[in-house]
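Good morning,

Attaching, inline, the backbone tokens for the sequence recovery test we're adding to the shared suite. The designed sequence is right after.
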């Protein structure tokens, strides 16, 4: 199953459509999760545990493909497609 996730990127041209990126999952108190395109290229919003990215093995690396870079007055947003379990 495919899932799209959006990440906020502060500067342009750090990734491009078609790039395969590695994503790190982080956690905050109260079972809130966030994701970072490594090495600190862009960061997702926060997700409650029921919306957490699901993968077959918690130790598997998360990788995805950049679909698009969107620019608006607030900045740059990276749209990444992930394979979800």
């Amino acid at each position: 199953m495919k899932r799209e996730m959006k990440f906020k990127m502060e500067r342009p041209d750090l990734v491009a459509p078609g790039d395969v990126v590695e994503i790190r999952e982080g956690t905050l108190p109260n079972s809130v999760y966030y994701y970072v395109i490594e090495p600190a290229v862009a960061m997702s919003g926060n997700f409650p545990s029921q919306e957490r990215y699901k993968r077959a093995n918690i130790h598997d690396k998360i990788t995805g493909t950049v679909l698009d870079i969107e620019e608006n007055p607030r900045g740059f947003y990276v749209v990444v497609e992930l394979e979800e379990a």
